[in-house]
Amino acid sequence: MQKLLVFQSLWAMERRRPDGLEWPLEEKIRMIAEAGFDGASIDFGDLAFARQATSLLREHGLTWQIEAFISTVEALKPILEGARELGGTHINLLPVVRPYTLEECVPYIEGWRALAAEAGVKLNIETHRNEMTTDLIFTLHLLDRFPNLRLEADLSHFLVGREFWYPISEENHALIHRILDHAWGLQGRVGSREQIQIQIDFPQHRHWVELFLTWWDYGMRSWRRRAGPDDSLTFLCELGPKEYAITGADGYELSDRWLEAQKLKSMVRDLWARIEAEEAGGPGDRERTR
User: Fold this and answer.
1) 74: domain range?
2) Cα–Cα nearest to 67, from 208, 187, 222
3) Would you say which domain of life the source belongs to (predicted)?
4) C-alpha span between 69 and 289 (Å, rounded)
5) Cα torsion for 242, 90, 144, 212, to the nearest 10°?
6) Is the pLDDT of residue 288 over 90?
7) How many independent structural domains does the chain possess?
8) At what angle do helices 47-59 and 76-86 cross, to 10 degrees?
9) What's the CATH code of the domain at 85?
């Protein structure tokens, strides 16, 4: 049976408050477990930290996905070694290179995919600003060149980067749908056309929240058609600290990101449940799909 795994980002557990108070790692993972998340995302750039974090997650019966900031083909090798040692659902590779042409991207993509295939580790490429996938159209050209490329879709970057007008045009919905039709992991952050991360409970932001729920609905349905009967889709709640989070004049954030992450978790689980019910022949909500 297909499953949805909702993770919380460890990076998103950083507080960065003016008073300097931070939760220790043990506390962060206890909070993630008690809040009912299925796991967390861990940066494997520091393998000693990854060992500590995965050990704590395992104690709580949780799993994890691997975050990897990679700028060369060879740099993926130690991440793969860590994955073989510690496990994880997949590697989410953030391609920290900025080729000018599509052809310059080819050796990176081919090299990363070959190494991952040899190691038997699932590899997704994240859509993210200031990286190879910074631009929506350039990323679509990558998909033309690599039709089977697995993406990790963080749509907030494309919304800000392209400054889509609201309501979103059918043309721009279609562009996002092409990304989602190649997504094997979803990332949870709500943005607007001008801000990368907005507060999901503020009433003036409701239409942006509904937009992202519409896109995630499409992405989940697309994934369910492509994935195997026993596969799991990961959804990573990644509400980042400042400068992602908006702060007031006192330096404190305008909302509680930890509470927002838990609400986001409930929202996407409800969305998944509605899709399951509809596909099983029960009552569903088709209004979110486009």
Assistant:
1) 3-288
2) 187
3) Bacteria
4) 33
5) -40
6) no
7) 1
8) 30
9) 3.20.20.150
